[in-house]
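Progress narrative, work stream C.
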Amino acid sequence: MQALKSKLAASPLLARAVPFAIFLGLTSLQGPVGPEWSCWIYFFKCLVGGWLTWLTWGMVSEMRWEFSLRGLGIGVLVCILWVGLDPWYPKMGSKNEGWNPFAIFSHSVSLAWFFVAVRILGSTIIVPPIEEVFYRSFIYRYLTDKDFTNAPLAVIRAMPFWVTSVVFGFAHSQWLAGILCGALYQWLVCRTGRLGEAMVAHAVTNCLLGIYIVYKGAWQFW
């Protein structure tokens, strides 16, 4: 662990990219292993993601939660767009019923609720800092200036703005909503110069979406 910490601390690029890469690698394992193991891998992924966030917290100065009405509003707006646009465009990947713990763990309601809580908490607390640091602190600024640590967050440049938003969007099955989501989060960072407001917006979106999924049984969003 000390060797990894030293390498991350010595490289601003690695400090922002490695947590995302590890998180993405664990995500790729969820598909082939079957529904039950997929849930357990998600739980493990959240633990690892939380540890990586803690490990890099002092190395990435902009990775700080910043609460504002603007960030909360963007988070709510993105959730509305994500749900509202869903019937109107084709999705990426094969059509499936989504990730439904109550179907996967029909033998244990308590275990199903445990994984619902894991999914909502993981997507609310762990995912936003890892993804926002990678996409909007690293990718966006790297496309602006290869020496990205010298590129300010509060500058809008069209090519990096839309490339980052499109890449973020196509990382999701709901690609159109993802592109708009990425653009709104990116605008928030460029407008304020603070990554933390986008982290909060991202957390609000994911939390509200998780609640909506469970309340409505709209498992296709997971």
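Work stream C, second folded protein:
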Amino acid sequence: MSVASDSDGRPVVLVVEDEESYQDALNVGLTVEGFIVVSASTLAQARELLASTKPDLILLDVMLPDGSGIDFCREVANSVRTPVIMVSARTSEVDIVLGLEIGAADYVTKPYRLRELIARMRAVLRRPASPTDEEVITFGPMRMDFDRRSLTRNGVDIDLSRKEFDLLALFATRLGQVVTREVCLDTLWWGLQLSDTRTLDTHVKRLRQKIELDPADPIHLVTIRGVGFRLDA
């Protein structure tokens, strides 16, 4: 386990990888590219480093000696805002979709090209966070609090997964504007093809079930056929 000192404004990346060859290559390659790297070989070490270093980004292997990276990704998604890129030898569509569904910002399969991985990392780091830590947006009877990452309807909490909150936040920060499918996929599921929008459609359906009085006839989260979606007040 290695720990970084002051970041001097450079992004700090937590690499959770038990294969020494991959860990060493990432330590060298990312450092050359201007990142500060902290590395862990186990989930226990990763949890310690997550708390002590507060990284800007996590590169997370799925198969680790003391547990599953999937479980750790879920922990991160439910507790902090640090984006996670899954880096795994598992290449099936089921594994990739599962990683994205539980809150990973991206999924990269091994073996990978370092330059492509770095490009994906920078794309994730460029994604906008919540508009401000204090900003609250209202639409209809809904109140969306970005500081608390909460949604209420007439004061009653509505339970949202991390990805559901992030998708609704994308619509809410563009209230009254059309958000294309391309923007949704590029912002929240970077790497998924536009031709495969089942994951996006599933999340929109879940949101409607939670925020609409009649999900079959939505008045807030409406579909703009052939283009995308719009959130109306």
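The chain has two domains: 12-126, 136-231. No further action is required on this item.
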